[in-house]
Amino acid sequence: MNSSLLLAGIPVTAFAMFPLPLLLQRHGRASAALAAAGVMTVCLALLLPLAPDALSGHCELVRLAWLPNYGLHLSLRLDGLGLLFCLLICGIGLLVVLYAAYYLPESDRLGRFYAILLLFMAAMLGVVLSENLLLLLVFWEITSLSSFLLVAYQSDKYKARSGARMALAVTGGGGLALLAGILLLGHVVGSFELSAILAAGEQIRGHALYAPMLILILLGAFSKSAQFPFHFWLPNAMAAPTPVSAYLHSATMVKAGIFLLARLYPAFGGSELWFWLVGGSGAITLVYAATLALFRHDIKGLLAYSTISQLGLITLLFGLDTPLSVVAGVFHVINHAIFKASLFMAAGVIDHECGTRDMRRVNGMFRYMPITATLAIIAAGSMAGVPLLNGFLSKEMFFAETTANPQFAPLGWALPLFATIAGMLAVAYSARFVHDVFFHGEPIDLPRQPHEPPRWMRVPIELLVLLCLLVGIVPRWTVEPLLAAAATATLQVPPPTFQLALWHGFNQPLLMSLVALAGGVLIYALRVPLFAWQEQLPAMHPRTAFERFHRQLTRSAHVIVTLLDNGSLQRYCALLFGFVVVLGGWSFFSAPSGSHRLPMQAADEAAVFALLALLIGAVGATMLYRERLLAVILVSVVGLVVALTFLRFSAPDLSLTQLAVETGTVILMLLVLYYLPPRSAPKSSARRLARDLLLALFVGGGLGLITLRMLTAPHETIADFYVQQSLPGGGGANVVNVILVDFRGFDTLGEITVLAMVALASHALLDRLVLVAPRRDADGRRWASDAHPLFLSMMMQPLLPLALTVSAYVFLRGHNAPGGGFVAGLITGVALIMQYLANGIAYGQRRMPDEQPGLLALGLLLAAGIGVASWAFGRPFLTGAHGHLRLPLLGEIELASAMIFDLGVYIVVVTVVLIVLAGLGRLSLVAHRHGEES
Amino acid sequence: MEALLATAVGILAGCGVFLILRARTFPVLLGLTLLSYAVNLFLFASGRLRLDAPPLIGSGASYADPLPQALVLTAIVIGFGMTAYLAMLALRGLSESGCDHIDVDQGR
After folding, report:
1. What is the distance between the alpha carbons of residues A289 and B69, in angstroms, rounded to a whole number?
2. Where do runs of H (alpha helix) occur along chain B?
3. Most A CBs within 10 Å: which of B17, B52, B78, B99, as the mutation test of the A interface?
4. Using a CB-CB distance cutoff of 8 angstroms, which residues of chain B are in contact with residue A723?
5. Which pLDDT tens digit goes with each residue over A428-466?
6. Which pLDDT score, from 0 to 100, does residue A355 have?
7. B26, B99, B103: which to substitute to probe chain A, counting the most A Cβ within 10 Å?
8. Arithmetic mean of pLDDT, A318-332
9. For residue A127, what pLDDT is reported?
10. pTM over 0.80
11. CB contact under 8 A, A607 and B4
């Protein structure tokens, strides 16, 4: 089969299939586990045909453009390093799946667990197979998120939740730094593709941005791989179920940071900064975490710190920055994954069988579970670096590398000494694990009677320990081809020849190993005084520090939130207007003020009078808003002045529309007033009043200033096009109407859609709305119980046909003279409402169509349909056509297709007015009934 | 003339803002109406003030800018729609909480 298809198939399968266990869990736990194992097996099966090529040093690439403008491609690569990690991820994944089925309680249906585990595995495969660094980052973040879910799997426990939160905060924060670093890197290299980046090592190391790039990327890698000073999240993540720890915290996720170091080594390695940062952090982590591991009483705690320490060892190896140290680092990645996964699983067995992981109580287990104990002892031996086991080989290489480091030449003795001390500590904590748990007398007060675990729960451990032995005894036949391919891919050049062998002769590394073994046993022998010394040290708890930091952050966030978001709409409005003032003021005063000012036109008496009327109306309404009826009247005065202003300044269409809307608004306000509580609100406090006045002053003054500045600035307009094209292009002399229904018809379609939405929403809000109609006003007077005034009702009936005729006239002439669908619709609507007012709701309701929302649809369909119709003539949406028609009485009118569009507008507007106003009126029927009952 | 219009816009906006900041629904309704007058006039003014030049082809030698007029025309109608919607919200709020305070929990 096509190899690029196979390669692409690996992550695609993993991501597509991850919910499978969730779907199959209703068929039982076994189905869920089989589904998870099946997905991993498929990934392995897809990988295996690709393995020979990758082992021979070939790099398989697949590329699919995703967002090419941003340099983001769906591109994958498989080389030796990727192959190694894929094998670890899928292989150990399979064992973990088997193990978890026995470890997790029977009551757990496992679907959710395996689904998240598969998602995590998919993301890890994505990380190690990505060719594009941005793509890698996407997968990187998915590993953080899915590992959060896995650590917090037992979400009813506080420790699980807080541990998961800490892990997410640290690794997520590191992910952000990594993003920044990768963006810088892409900026420097000009591509996010690894092939380009790995080939640009010289350019990257020589660039001025080298240090920031390196530091940002290392922040990402170190936080993921729990390197000092970001190590503290890993022990707290031990609240995860043990299979998760075995998978994420030994073999895979914590190795993602190491993977990144290895991947980017050719681009970043080989500088002094790299040596000191990577080597330094690795060295500190190596010794510091090993010391802490020694003093843990929790088995998993010991394993967690030992993991941190071993990761520090690998980091240090990369930091030593010689080809052979890199080979040793890659080798130790393999070995550590194997022995640490088996140790975690053994710890899980002990926890599972004893009910506790406290090494002060779990003693003498060798007698109760001899097979598990033997396996764990072998794995721990590997961790300590005992000969014949795989850990010995890589530790030997590590020792060899420290003896001859060129960068550390002046202090040639210091590095080997340091390495030996680290080796001693590793031996000591391994010895403590073995001796305390499996020997050291009898168990103390265990919740359960321990015995060997179920047969199949032990199988994963057996396989891993077998690997420890095989790699340790016959490395050349087992691991060497894979290691050579991975090292070649890491270095991007073939590594110097190295020999994996048990016996290199009696040399310095062997001596160091022996010293470490002896020293480690000695340290363990001195444990009683050492523990006493440790007890009296001041306690250092990064966990509590983190928790305190987290709490303070939450608290200050809470303060800010309550300051801004206290649920008060009034507060929001005030903040909004304040912000508008600040922003507007800032841009007003910072904008260049054009020196050229146009002269103003002379004002006349009419304008002054109009302003005076407007002033009285607006300020009056504002001051007297408690006198609601008066306020409505005053606002309507303002509306009239505005309508006159439009008329004065050559906008007859606006004037007409404003007049019609004014009528509707007044009716609306009166209807609302009818239902609102008759008493007026208490007066605002003086402080509130001052604040609001100030805001009003600033907003009003600001807007006035901007208007004046705008009106006196030179003016360029695109209107000439519309004026010239109105007759020939749109077939109408009223340019405003032609713009609305033809040139900018699409906008208008959007606007009537908004109107229709308003009407629908109002319809929904009015549905089953129950209000109580007041029977007395605020002063205790009864509402008039008169029937509808005879005079009004007599007037309105003949007026209706007249009003409809007027609106038809206004509609028809709209294309050439002031008028059109909007105005005509408003006139019709108001005329119909007047019928309600004059004759009562019941009268109106009998004569009106019931399905008013349907009319909205009709109007919208007409308007949109005429637009679609132009497709039939091969024209773009809403292209107009027009012709002439001579009608009696009206004379010649332009009959344009835009008229049908305008008809749609007309229908929508009429329906909106009816739904809103008649709907409100209809409420009064119900309200009166309730009013009389109460 | 320009100064008068700018004054009018300023007064309307100021009064509108003050009313919108009141605590009860009805003044907010009034305030929104005033504020939309202000904004409509402002938008309209962006086409400059022309006397006796309605944008009707054939009615004169030159025409006022029709584009802001078209914008404002729909804005007026949509403004009415928004006012109506706000009124419905106010009534719904009144029926569900029994008070006409815009922050329901403070009005009780």
Report:
1. 74
2. 2-20, 25-45, 66-97, 104-107
3. B17
4. 55, 57, 63, 66
5. 999 999 999 998 888 888 888 888 888 899 999 999 999
6. 86
7. B26
8. 92
9. 95
10. no
11. yes
The closest CB to that of B10, out of A665, A675, A701, belongs to: A701
Write the residue in B26, B77, B85 that is nearest to A909 by C-beta: B77
A358: helix, strand or coil: strand
| A182 has pLDDT over 80 | yes
CB contact under 8 A, B67 and A717: yes
Structure tokens at A235: 């022990």
**Residue B57 resides in a domain:** no
Domain range holding B68?
2-50+64-107
Residue A519 has pLDDT above 80, yes or no: yes
Is the pLDDT confidence value at B33 over 80? yes
A80 pLDDT more than 90: yes
Question: For residue A787, what pLDDT is reported?
Answer: 64
Domains of chain B: total = 1
A319, burial (CB in 10 Å: exposed 0-12, middle 13-18, buried 19+)? buried
Taking 70 as the threshold, does the pLDDT of residue A893 lie above it? no
Classify residue B25: in a domain, yes or no.
yes
Sign of CA dihedral A603, A605, A607, A608: positive
B108 burial (CB, 10 Å; 0-12 / 13-18 / 19+) is: exposed
Q: Which residues of A touch B46 (CB under 8 A)?
A: 710
What Å distances lie between residue A645 and A648, A730, A764, B41, B49, CA to CA? Answer: 5, 28, 36, 9, 10
Q: Is A925 near chain B, with CB under 8 Å?
A: no
Q: What number of residues does chain B have? A: 108
**A253 and A300 Cβ atoms separated by less than 8 Å:** no
- Nearest residue on chain B to A703, judged by CA atoms? B10
Determine the residue of chain A that is closest to B101 in CA distance: A681
Q: Which helix (H) or strand (E) holds A920?
A: helix A919-933
pLDDT of residue A154 exceeding 70, the answer is: yes
CA distance linking residue B31 with residue A902, whole number of Å: 31
- The string of pLDDT tens digits covering residues A766-822 is 888 877 776 666 677 776 666 667 788 888 888 889 999 999 999 888 878 888 888
A648 and B CB contact within 8 Å: yes
**Residue of B9, B39, B76, B105 for testing the chain A interface, max A β-carbons within 10 Å:** B76
> What is the C-alpha to C-alpha distance for residues A292 and A306, in angstroms, rounded to an integer?
8
How far apart are alpha carbons A665 and A637 in whole angstroms?
12
CATH code of B39's domain? 1.10.287.3510
> Quick one: average pLDDT of A14-35?
92
What does the alpha-carbon distance between residue A96 and residue A240 come to, in Å, rounded to a whole number? 14
What percent of chain A has pLDDT above 90?
48
Question: Torsion angle of alpha carbons A747, A753, A754, A756, nearest 10°?
Answer: 150
Nearest Cα neighbor of A487 from A344, A695, A317, A373 is A317
Reported as a pLDDT band with limits 50, 70 and 90, residue A498 is confident
- Would residue B77 count as lying in a domain? yes
Nearest CB to A708: which of B3, B77, B81?
B3
The whole-angstrom distance between A669's CA and the closest CA on chain B is: 8
**Backbone phi, psi, residue A863, to 5°:** -65, -45
Is residue B32 pLDDT above 90, yes or no? yes
Question: Which residue bears the tokens 């309200």?
Answer: A927
What is the mean pLDDT of the segment spanning B8-22?
94
Q: Is residue A150 within 8 Å of A238, Cβ to Cβ?
A: no
Pairs across A and B, CB distance < 8 A: 306
A window 792-821, beta carbon within 8 A of B: 816-818
Residue B11 lies in a domain: yes
- Across the interface, which of A657, A668, A770 has its CB nearest the CB of B76? A657
Distance CA A586, CA A928 (A): 53
